[in-house]
User: Fold these one by one.
Assistant:
Number 1:
Amino acid sequence: MPKPLRTVLQEVTYHCYSRCQGFNKLLFDNFAKKCFIEAIKMCQDKYNFELNAAEIVSNHFHLVIRTLKDEATISLIMQYIKARTAQRYNRATGRVGPFWNERFGCTIIEESENPEEYLLNLLWYVAFNPTRKGESRDPRENYIGFIRCYLTEGLVLPIKITLHHYFYRLGYNFLECVKRLLFYEDAYRKRMALFF
């Protein structure tokens, strides 16, 4: 049975994720992570979109991407990132076969009941993903560590992170936005503590 068609819209924010083939930890080593980062950088050079969050876990990744009017679709962006990562990694290591388990999954944030709340909670969910899996002690220490861009004004990472416009609605200036975003971190930590 064919898979249902993906909803492809412009000027919306997608939470995208994809797992490595067979749930293997192909993204665990630093070389694979570098391949993934390089693929994102190449995609940012080729297409116009906003990357609002990005984090790697050993067997999957999470991206939060906002597509722009009359620019590349989410399918084109994700296809490019996944293909370039697999191509570079397989060529360099001599590995053959698929790198990714299936087509990427995604959720449109603006279709949720409360998009702002969803996005602000999602930023911490993505940031804490490697921590929950035991791969980092703190989201600020993750391999990408995108959340630091939301906490330190003007911080530059190897990939360009565009702060989502919902973040800027939290306050009148950057410090006020950070202060309110940290409330979402506290709430997330409390929810996490219930399960561990």
Number 2:
Amino acid sequence: MLSACTSVLVAEGWHVVLPSRRYAPIPTTPGGTGTGRALWVAADWSDPAGLARRARRALGAPAELLVAWVRHEHRAAVLHEVAPLLERGAPIVEVHGSAAAVLSEGYPEPVLPDHPTQQVVLGFVPVGRTSRRLSHEEISDGILAAVRRALADKPPAVRQVGEPRPWSNAMS
């Protein structure tokens, strides 16, 4: 779902390691520097140590940025396990699915407080009296905006992409 965002980063010269449950080749974007690359590593979120070992091998050096979209139940364990792979103070972009977009409960706290963290909370797009899920492009655009904010050393913030869960307002 983040292939468009990843393609932009690769075109800008980033070495991107993509932990994912399924392999999906990343298309190259014309006009890039030609020095970036994307490497897929198998991700089993229930095995954070194994994921960190595979990511360490693929990285080859400390990571300058982490974009993490990990299910809530595995989020803390995975982020704590990959934290040693990050440069000191490297920015993090945490992506949260639509279940986190219930404003009455507040947004999740960043997992790694020693790293400036931008958070992206995915929601829905209103369509008349109903709503639809965000498109891959809308998701990538929102995450890429948070990446830009992180790389510009902007203060940590929460970016809501789309509207909160449609039923969260109806039940208030």
